[in-house]
Amino acid sequence: MENLNLPSYPYKLKKVDDKIYIYDSLRRKYILLTPEEWVRQHFVHFLINHHQYPKSMIRLESPLKYNSLLKRTDIQIFGRDGNLLMIVECKAPYIELNQSVFEQAAQYNKTLKAKFLTITNGMKFYTCKTDWEKLEVEFLSDLPTFT
């Protein structure tokens, strides 16, 4: 897998029938290693170890009904009040983080109404804060630290 622009962590891999799996400490099981999963696992550890997001507040691959289609968000983070705080859309490192990637994540967030939205390909990430009352979006220079 490609080196990412995220801090490394002591990940665990295993090989079964010529396929490689990575251990997901939140779901407590091995997940098929794809470029997107590589990014997701690194970003989760970045959230936990460098921005103080508690493991108990993070949910992975949560279902979402959008335009009567069943979709999944890559990462959902909840606040201490139980409300959705942030969604994170992960892409493979070779996927450009362009307007269409942001619009896909923003469409999901119109349904979910998280305060923060992040897109990442493991090489870079962009985070914005949404004021749902004023319908204003502000791009941030960094991820907010969990408080």
Automatic annotation (TrEMBL):
Pfam family, one: HSDR_N_2
Domain Type I restriction enzyme R protein N-terminal: 35-144
Protein name, per record: Type I restriction enzyme HsdR N-terminal domain-containing protein
Organism: Arcicella rigui
Classification of source organism: Bacteria, Pseudomonadati, Bacteroidota, Cytophagia, Cytophagales
Top-level taxon in the UniProt lineage: Bacteria
InterPro entries from the UniProt entry: HSDR_N
